[in-house]
Amino acid sequence: MLTSLLNDRKIMPTDFRRWADAHRQFAQGKDRQKVDKLKESIAEDGLEVPILLCINERWRDIYVSDGHHRAIAVIELELTRFPFHWHWIRAGVHIEHEPFPYELLER
């Protein structure tokens, strides 16, 4: 997935209203330490745990459901792409094995 899609219009953060809020939260303390450790690890070995994206079935919105620290690390490293898994928000969470519906990003 293109890292540039991690923005407030395409792939939004679940735990924050906007990506700027996530950046602010992760700028200090234990969150900053976690992001810095991830950046070191990613620079050496790549992103080993994919970022989990979810699609709201009703609204077709796309969110990061797991991996906010990883997403911030990827953004700060200015990586072009990141590995991901995805799922629909339905009854239960099941990782999809079908191709990601990229057409939803074109809205």
Keyword list:
107 residues; alpha/beta; Conserved hypothetical protein from pyrococcus furiosus pfu- 392566-001, ParB domain
Description:
The chain is of the alpha/beta class. The protein is built from 3 helices and 4 strands, in the order E-H-H-E-E-H-E. The protein has one domain: Alpha-Beta Complex (Conserved hypothetical protein from pyrococcus furiosus pfu- 392566-001, ParB domain), CATH 3.90.1530. It has helices spanning 19-25, 29-45, 68-76; strands at residues 11-13, 51-56, 62-66, 84-89. A 4-stranded mixed sheet has the order 1-3-2-4. Helix 2 packs across helix 3 (68-76).
Itemize the secondary structure elements and their pairings.
Blueprint: E1 11-13, H1 19-25, H2 29-45, E2 51-56, E3 62-66, H3 68-76, E4 84-89
Parallel strand pairs: 1-3, 2-4
Antiparallel strand pairs: 2-3
Helix pairs in contact: 2-3
Which quaternary structure do these chains form? single chain
Level-2 CATH architecture: Alpha-Beta Complex
Assigned CATH superfamily:
Conserved hypothetical protein from pyrococcus furiosus pfu- 392566-001, ParB domain
Count of discrete structural domains: 1
Helix content: 25-40%
DSSP strand content: 15-25%
Highest CATH level, the class: Alpha Beta
Structure summary, number of beta strands: 4
Helix count, DSSP H or I runs of 4 or more residues: 3
CATH topology name: Conserved hypothetical protein from pyrococcus furiosus pfu- 392566-001, ParB domain
Instruction: Profile the largest sheet.
Output: 4 strands, mixed
Structural class label: alpha/beta
Judging from the principal axes of the Cα atoms, what is the shape?
Answer: globular
Strand order of the largest sheet: 1-3-2-4
Radius of gyration: 14 Å
> What is the residue-averaged pLDDT?
94
Can you write the helix and strand succession as a string? EHHEEHE
Alpha-carbon distance between the two ends: 16 Å
Q: Which stretches are low in confidence, meaning pLDDT under 50 for 5 or more residues running?
A: none
